[in-house]
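Severity: low
Component: inverse-folding endpoint
Summary: output formatting inconsistent between runs
Steps to reproduce: submit the following structure tokens with default settings.
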């Protein structure tokens, strides 16, 4: 598809952000007249990029209008996520809804084997949907440099080429799972409309990102947000990254195992969820200690970054649910005095485990809008 006029691309982006937007609402959002909006919509419907629903009765004296949605034969993007235990790839239509998906599990196999499974699933979805597929976004469980190279220390993966999943994709972007979850929360989750949002995701370690007015602050090589490697943990504990005292080692399944005098878990995420599900004094005490360590670190980042809201994903949300008092008390104790009266809310990520996948899709749509404007 060739370039589209700016108004047409803006219309697509508006409907993507707000599925079900009426034609009249879209004209107001874009600052164009109803006649101009009708012309743009007509072109987009003709090119099978948008569809119009039934007539919506007018409110007051306005004219009846129609809701705008994804075309049933319209563009799709593929979004994939690899975790320390599993992989998943979905086909996502305009507006963010998934229309198909494939998934599987792995047990820390070499990166090549896991990506080969993911590549076969991507090929299956491409065969199913043909040229409707516009690109691929990938979320990885570690540092992703230059939107391509993954280092997942817990899995022992280094310099993994994520682009091998679809080498000749027209649009291909990759990033850290926590970074993409942060973007998703700002677009479709608990941080919508925040001026500055801080997202933290606890998995096998801790990562996160800062989003300012809907824009990720990614750093020089896209590796910003590795908050789990701030030296806010126990200096006696060595992290898989090679440093000592990383904050992530104080808030994950490994931290719970040490508090319970258990061996280092092979699968720290599954182990953490097993401890969270227990109903005994030792488990509750360990969870409270880890939740407090998470709260203290949140306070430090709030003091440094001044966010409107802090969203917690992965095990972070589960720790918040299990020990809200301990997490909140530790956070408040670490805040500067002037923040004490109105600290930013610390809330569970609304999108949950779908966050990284949703963020991966959003990145591809962003790149596709840019291509349409050329």
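Observed output (run 2 of 3):
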């Amino acid at each position: 598809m060739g370039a589209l006029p700016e108004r047409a691309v803006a219309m697509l982006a508006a409907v993507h952000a707000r599925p079900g937007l009426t034609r009249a609402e879209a004209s107001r959002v874009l600052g164009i007249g109803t006649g101009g909006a009708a012309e743009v919509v007509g072109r987009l419907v003709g090119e099978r990029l948008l569809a119009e629903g039934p007539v919506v009765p007018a409110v007051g004296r306005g004219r009846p209008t129609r809701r705008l949605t994804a075309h049933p034969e319209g563009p799709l993007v593929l979004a994939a996520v690899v975790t320390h235990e599993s992989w998943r790839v979905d086909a996502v239509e305009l507006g963010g809804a998934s229309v198909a998906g494939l998934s599987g599990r792995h047990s820390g196999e070499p990166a090549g084997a896991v990506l080969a499974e993911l590549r076969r699933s991507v090929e299956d979805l491409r065969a199913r949907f043909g040229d409707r597929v516009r690109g691929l976004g990938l979320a990885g469980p570690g540092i992703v440099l230059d939107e391509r190279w993954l280092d997942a220390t817990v899995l022992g993966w280094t310099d993994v080429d994520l682009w091998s999943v679809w080498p000749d994709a027209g649009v291909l972007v990759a990033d850290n799972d926590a970074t993409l979850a942060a973007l998703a929360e700002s677009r479709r989750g608990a941080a919508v409309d925040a001026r500055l949002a801080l997202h933290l995701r606890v998995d096998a370690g801790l990562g996160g990102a800062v989003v300012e007015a809907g824009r990720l602050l990614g750093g020089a090589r896209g590796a910003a947000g590795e908050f789990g490697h701030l030296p806010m943990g126990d200096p006696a504990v060595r992290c898989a990254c090679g440093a000592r005292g990383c904050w992530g080692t104080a808030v994950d399944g490994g931290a719970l195992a040490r508090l319970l005098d258990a061996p280092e878990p092979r699968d720290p995420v599954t182990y953490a969820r097993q401890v969270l599900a227990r109903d005994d004094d030792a488990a509750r005490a360990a969870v409270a200690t880890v939740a407090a360590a998470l709260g203290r670190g949140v306070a430090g980042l709030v003091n440094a970054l001044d966010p409107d809201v802090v969203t917690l994903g992965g095990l972070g949300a589960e720790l918040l649910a299990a020990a809200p008092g301990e997490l909140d008390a530790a956070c408040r104790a670490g805040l500067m005095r002037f923040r004490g009266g109105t600290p930013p809310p610390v809330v569970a990520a609304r999108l949950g485990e779908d966050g990284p996948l949703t963020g991966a899709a959003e990145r591809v749509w962003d790149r596709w809008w840019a291509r349409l404007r050329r």
